[in-house]
Amino acid sequence: MAGRFAPRTPSRRPIPAPRAAGRTRTWAPAEGPLDLPLTLGPLRRGPADPTYRTTPDGAVWRTSRTPAGPATLRVTATKDTAQAEAWGEGAEWMLDQLPALLGELDDPGAFAPRHRLVAEAHRRRPGLRLGRTGLVLESLIPSVLEQKVTTTEAYRAWRLLVRKYGEPAPGAPDGMYVMPDARTWALIPSWEWHRAGVDSKRSDTVMRAVRVARRMEEAAAMDPAKAAERLRLIPGIGPWTAAETLQRAIGAADLVTVGDLHLPGIIGHALAGNRNADDAEMLALLEPYAGQRHRAARLILLSGRTPERRAPRMQPGNIAPL
């Protein structure tokens, strides 16, 4: 009984230091509402992405390695106004880029639905904007990791490599990291790629890309067609990877992800009742949306009109030597 009423030993757990205030900015789109999760959601690489986090207060946190250095951005939004705070060497760069990130350079008014399903999805999500990060490698590398594997495998590889070779994000909650710089990616040894479940084909592609990192980043200032050409100069980067990268880096509204395992069947099922559509049929179905085909594809995915699975899910691969 004595122990029950003995005074407790004070906890030795350190009290977290209050987060230093960062630089701030407020921005409102010229017209229309802003849906923060829909606009920034494509930048998240899985639920445990160390470079992206959402918090119960509705904030989106993301980290980037900017031209000025590592940075963390926290964004909240009402229906028509975004409030942002940034930390780190690249904080000012991140705030300068905030309007583009949230879709200022997008033109949702140019989109005209041609199918009832697309029109309904468009009506329900008026705040969808196609943002641009202005950064190529941060979307290119995870896109390469996602080539020909399950998303679970790709997300795990990204998470492990960023946590091990990145750096703690300035001003961010614990567990958030800034991805490695190009030189660090280039120095990752082969056995670490293997431990992360990345085969040599994908790791070699990343290595080739980071060795010409400056040339890759120049694509952020190009029009989508020329930017895709620039990326595809790297062996191992094809139309799928270029599209997935540039949809995020430059908000390419018309770049369709061709070569995807599931997307043609989803588009075919939604617009023509053909779950067996190939890339050619998908592109034909999206032709009425020329100039806005990526937006149309996103709206179709958001509609939830996807065919039921008839085949087993793709199984994780095994890159262990036989």
UniProtKB/TrEMBL annotation:
In terms of Gene3D superfamilies, this protein maps to:
Hypothetical protein, domain 2
For bias type Low complexity, the affected ranges are 1-45
Upper taxonomic lineage: Bacteria, Bacillati, Actinomycetota, Actinomycetes, Kitasatosporales
Keyword field contains DNA repair? yes
In residue numbers, the region (Disordered) covers 1-66
Sorted keywords for this record are: DNA damage, DNA repair
Protein name, UniProt field: 3-methyladenine DNA glycosylase
- Annotated SUPFAM superfamilies: DNA-glycosylase
